[in-house]
Amino acid sequence: MIPKEVLKRIRHIQITTSRMVSDVFAGQYQSVFKGKGMEFDEVREYHPGDDIKSIDWNVTARTGHPYVKKFVEERELTVMLILDASMSCHFGSVKQMKSQLAAELCSVLAFSAVRNNDRIGLIIFTDRIEKFVPPRKGLRHVLRIIREALYYQPQGRGTDIPLALEHLNRFTRRKAISFVISDFFASGFKRFLSIANKRHDIIALTITDPRETDLPDVGILKLNDAETGEEFTVDTSDASFRQSYRRDSLQRIRERQKLLSSINVDKIDVHTDVPYVKELIKFFKMRERRLA
After folding, report:
1. What is the CATH number of domain 4-31+76-291?
2. 133 falls in which pLDDT band (50, 70, 90)?
3. What radius of gyration, in Å, describes the C-alpha atoms of the chain?
């Protein structure tokens, strides 16, 4: 039995994000991810009346007989949400934690997919595969994905992006639009992300909190690493320490951007203190220009 407060939260997310999809993203998702609506199926011998524009000249030259390309209406897409549930995502200093923002983004993408009659699936990962929801269609399925994204309690603490990508490749046979939703506070995933991007359409959805780049001047603070549990004390009244912290944080973000760009992975940068709608629209417009 799902608690009433959980149902209330899911309902709120459903109303908010489905309205956003209808009002803001209507048509953009389809134009970006559906292409021309036709895909290659096979070649067959030419029959009188066939459009000569569909002749496959390579096959015709090899066989000595005219062959045409046969196309079929493009089937629905598969969209996979690959959600980082590590402890570093259970942090937030403004209105919501990174994990809550990630769940809302999952909801927006899931409603966009179901509105377009696409299949939507979910992989929740930490340093292990926490949950795998195979891709399906329908509103009930989307509501399940929202519930899992919002309230799943992970067992692991760390981040293993390569493991999540290997799981994607193992269980998703056809090409999938795959959103990796994470703060990407990890290492050693470049090669795996590059390999996955050759098979699927990988989009990195990076989430950052302002306290990860700027510390306030509040004196002595006791902090701990969410993923390792290591505790340490810092003096935030030290201006040089705050500057060093900011410099190192911004360098890490630049390295993240450089890595994704080097393997041609598109990214959407969202922050817990800034509405994400503009960044999603920016991404859709960028994809539209590329397809034009």
Report:
1. 3.40.50.410
2. very high
3. 22
